[in-house]
Amino acid sequence: MNNDQRLVEGSILKSLTTLAWPIIMANILQTAYQLIDTFWLGRLGANAVAAVSISFPILFLVLSLGAGLTLAGTVIVSQYKGADDQKMINFSASQTVMLVLLVSILLALVGYFSANPLMRLIGAGPEIFQDSVTYFQVSSWGFVFLFMFFVFQSLMRGIGDVLLPMYIVLGTVFLNLVLDPLFIFGFGSIPGYGVAGAAIASVITQGLSAVAGLMILFSGKRGIKINLKDMRLKLDWVKRLFALGIPASLEQSSRAAAMTVMVMLVTSFGSSVVAAYGIGARILSLVIVPALGFAIATTSLVGQNIGASKIKRAEKIGDLSSKIAFFGLTAIGMLLFFFAETLTRFFVPNDPQVIQDGAKFIRIMAPSFGLLGVQQVLNGLFNGARFTQASMLISVFSMWVVRFPVAFILSSKTVLGFEGIWWAFPISNLIAAIVAFSYYKSGHWKLRTIRNRRLWIEQGIG
């Protein structure tokens, strides 16, 4: 069996793990950017951590508005890969790169010039306001680089090449490990920039990864070859990318917007609680990486199998991914439950109140990580089936209908106080997992996929 066939034939477990482990490693390494930042900024004090913690949800919101387009590239390329259509793989990749480039430039400009009012809007206190604005402005310049690497990564995953992006991320994270303390604290003739130094280090490494990714895509030596003549945007393709990408963007942006509103709730309790929330959120972002890895692998694998007209095999992929995510993340969650205080102390070693509050946040969330994993991988299956609207609706329901209202009521209307925000996480994870799994088992997504494939074939675009 050759490499092009291995994802649509043979062992599903082997196909999943072959795709998932490099994606998980790449995501862990990308999350390491934030963890490295938090580690070094924690040496400046809780206010430095709080400044970045407030900026992070807004950054994620801006990024997610365009990130859905890179997912659209994964879905389309994976289905053309399953159908063994190299010409359309190259063409759709070229269209995706150009569209994402234009969107990233727009978002970089918007991010830079809106930093000040955004930080005021979410309630940054006077002790962290200027640092949060500066961090956000510097980070905004990296949007173009970040998006170019994301689109490279997504296209490679669409054809099943997951190792190369991982190696590039590994190299840039090691570089960031050196550049972070250099620009935060300074050395020799290089001045220390404090909080902004963490953003400067990230922008430099993002730029290098973007250049490497584009060079590989233009060379055509790794299964995809983009070219300038195919980058002239065609209206029908722009519509198609937006039709798939906008729901995915709304899914991610709804999560980011909810995170932002949650931060607004947290800020009313003071910088110490903001720092504890920031550390807990960072741990959460690391813990769900395995689920996200299997979700992305599921998207690519389901996409290729649907492209090869293997709907039943696509369903078996969803069954296995759900089991792996549930049991695997539940085990990780229980482990973190017992080491919550040690983890929190690692980031802010000299603030007992932050350590106590952050550890409690982790302990409350940890038992529900398996449920979060189920929701993530099923969203990945819906995305691979070109049903990005389902993922969007489930995420919006989880964050806005359940998590935020529960957090608001428990934190403002009960004796729990800010701990009510902590409890909103496991409650929303449970309800969202039940909704996603119930819809998956209804089988509606399969009927929709079969109907849409017929339509695309009739229109000559599938």
Automatic annotation (TrEMBL):
Main location (coarse class): membrane
NCBIfam families, alphabetized: matE
InterPro entries, per database record: MATE_fam (IPR002528), MATE_MdtK (IPR050222), MdtK-like (IPR048279)
Keywords annotated in UniProt: Antiport, Cell membrane, Ion transport, Membrane, Transmembrane, Transmembrane helix, Transport
Protein name as catalogued: Multidrug-efflux transporter
Its membrane topology: Multi-pass membrane protein
A biological-process GO annotation: monoatomic ion transport
One cellular-component annotation, GO: plasma membrane
Subcellular location: Cell membrane
Higher taxonomy: Bacteria, Pseudomonadati, Bacteroidota, Cytophagia, Cytophagales
Single GO term (MF): xenobiotic transmembrane transporter activity
Superkingdom of origin: Bacteria
Membrane spanning stretches: 12-36, 48-77, 97-115, 135-152, 164-187, 193-218, 256-277, 283-303, 324-348, 360-378, 390-409, 421-440
